[in-house]
Amino acid sequence: MARRLIPISEDLLNELVRVASSEGSSLRVIVEDIIKDAIKVFRLRGSLKEAVREIEVLEEVRRLGGYVVPARVFYEILENLSNDVYEKIVSEMKKTSSWYGSILKAKFGKNSVSILKSILQNYFLDSKVTVKNSEGKISLILSSPHQTEKATHATRESLLALLKSMGLNVLNVESSEGVIVVEAEY
Question: Cβ(172)–Cβ(125) under 8 Å?
Fold first, then answer.
C-alpha cells in the first residue's frame, strides 16, 4: 500500500498523542479509528460538523435533565393531563428551553443564529425545520404532522423561550396544530 504524508499542525498532533496516551493506544491506531469513524459519519449524515453539533445538542439536553421519549407517547401524555398539570409541564419546558438557549448563546455567541436550524432540528426531534436567515431577520417553520394542539402549544412556548434566551427578538408568531411559524430579528 502506498504511503502518503499528510501535514497537520503540531498542536493537533500533540492533542492526538495525548488522546492516544489516555486511551492506552498508539497514535496510528487512534488516527485510523478516527478516520474510520469519520467515514461512517459522512455516510450516515453527510457532515461531520452536523454530527458533532447533534451530539453537543443532545449532550446539553441530557445534562439539563432531558429524557428521550417517543413523540407520540409524549403527545398522548400531554393530552391526558389536567389543565393545571399541563400548565406546570409547559412552564418547566419553557424554563429548560430558556436555560438551553442561554447555554447556546454563551457557547456559540452570535454564531448560534447560523446554526439555528441544526439546533432546532435536534432539540425538537420530531419536527421538520425550515430556517431562512437574511439581513438580521429569521423566518422559521417547525412542522410535525403528529403533534396535537396541546403538543403544538407546548412546542411553541418552548421555542419562544429558546429564541428569546438566545437573544432574538420575536416579531411575529403564528401557529396551528402541528405548525409553528416565527419571525424574529437579532
Answer: no
Nearest of 78, 76, 110 to residue 92 by alpha carbon:
78
Is 180 exposed, middle or buried, given 0-12, 13-18 or 19+ CB atoms closer than 10 A?
buried
Q: What is the DSSP string of 1-28?
A: ---------HHHHHHHHHHHHHHT--HH
Prediction pTM value: 0.73
Query: Both ends of the chain: CA-CA distance in Å?
Result: 53
- Please give the Cα distance from 104 to 28 (Å, whole number): 35
Q: What's the grid cell of residue 21?
A: 496516551
Phi, psi of 149 (to 5 degrees): -60, -45
Q: How many residues does the chain have?
A: 186
The runs of H, that is alpha helices, within 24-82 are 27-45, 48-63, 71-79
Question: Assign residue 160 a region: left if phi > 0, alpha if psi is -120 to 50, beta otherwise?
Answer: alpha
The model's pLDDT over 77-130, given as tens digits with 9 standing for 90+, comes to: 999 999 999 999 999 999 999 998 998 888 888 777 777 888 888 788 889 999
- pLDDT reading at 138 higher than 80: yes
| The residue type at 136 | G
Beta-bridge partner residues of 141: 130, 181
